[in-house]
């Protein structure tokens, strides 16, 4: 299963991911008590020390996509996934990545990702997405940062709308459902902002290596080499 939350900066998509993180961690603890297996949550965002202490052994980190493709039976929270799988790359993703994406359900891998726009993400990943949502903050407090005044009271109201992704209209996105496609709303409070560092700067990802492929003609015995 692959779910994507989209929205421009300060729209609330990372806070929605924070709510999902708390939900998944609590569920994984229940599953351990009931079934005896420990399902770990992998993320590229630095969680708070308090949350790590509350869920010891349930949180792990990754830096690059290659840290993930051998994993099984995990949840993945992937902030700004387009920095790893960018739509600006015209060549297909390597077969090893595509195989991992196609067989995620068999491996028990669930991915919850964010991106500013759905079409920022590489097409090979978008084809595997189960559902996508756009998050927008309707009203609320501003956002702090370097050389900006501190926010005394953190509050806000966000609207979540489900995107129509099959087919997906990049120039004029459409939404599923009534009332403009609104699927849910949520309130912003300080506890969500303390799940992880919402000001963390994600490092630039490594370039995905080209795939070296050799194909041999059975008739003339010539070998052709190409990269993609």
What does this structure look like?
This protein is of the alpha/beta class. It has one domain (2-227): Rossmann fold. The protein has helices at 13-35, 49-54, 95-102, 104-107, 123-126, 190-193, and strands at residues 2-6, 40-43, 59-61, 74-78, 110-115, 131-140, 156-162, 182-188, 212-216, 223-227. The strands form 2 sheets. It has an 8-stranded mixed beta sheet. Strands 9-10 form a two-stranded antiparallel sheet. Strand 9 (212-216) and strand 10 (223-227) form a beta hairpin. The model has no long low-confidence stretch (mean pLDDT 87).
Task: Describe the secondary structure blueprint for this structure.
Elements: E1 2-6, H1 13-35, E2 40-43, H2 49-54, E3 59-61, E4 74-78, H3 95-102, H4 104-107, E5 110-115, H5 123-126, E6 131-140, E7 156-162, E8 182-188, H6 190-193, E9 212-216, E10 223-227
What would you give as the CATH superfamily?
P-loop containing nucleotide triphosphate hydrolases
As a percent range, the share of helical residues equals 10-25%
Secondary-structure class? alpha/beta
This entry's quaternary arrangement is single chain
Quote the average pLDDT.
Answer: 87
Q: Overall 3D geometry? A: globular
Task: Report the strand count.
Answer: 10
Which consecutive residue ranges, at least 5 long each, have pLDDT under 50? Answer: none
């Amino acid at each position: 299963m692959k779910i994507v939350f989209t929205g421009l900066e300060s729209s609330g998509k990372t806070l929605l991911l924070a709510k999902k993180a708390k939900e998944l961690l609590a569920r994984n603890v229940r599953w351990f008590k009931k079934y005896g297996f420990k399902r770990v949550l992998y993320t590229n965002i630095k969680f708070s020390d308090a949350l790590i202490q509350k869920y010891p052994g349930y949180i792990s980190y990754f830096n690059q996509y290659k840290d993930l493709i051998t994993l099984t039976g995990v949840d993945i929270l992937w902030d700004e996934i387009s920095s790893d799988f960018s739509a600006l790359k015209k060549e297909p993703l390597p077969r090893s990545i595509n195989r991992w994406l196609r067989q995620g359900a068999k491996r028990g891998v669930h991915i919850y990702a964010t991106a500013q726009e759905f079409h920022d993400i590489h097409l090979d990943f978008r084809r595997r997405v189960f559902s996508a949502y756009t998050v927008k903050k309707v009203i609320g407090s501003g956002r702090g940062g370097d050389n900006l005044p501190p926010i005394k009271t953190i509050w806000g109201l966000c609207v979540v709308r489900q995107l129509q992704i099959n087919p997906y209209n990049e120039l004029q996105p459409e939404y599923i459902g009534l009332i403009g496609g609104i699927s849910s709303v949520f309130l912003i409070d300080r506890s969500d902002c303390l799940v992880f560092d919402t000001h963390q700067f994600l490092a630039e990802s490594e370039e995905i290596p080209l795939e070296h492929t050799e194909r041999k003609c059975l008739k003339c015995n010539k070998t052709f080499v190409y990269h993609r």
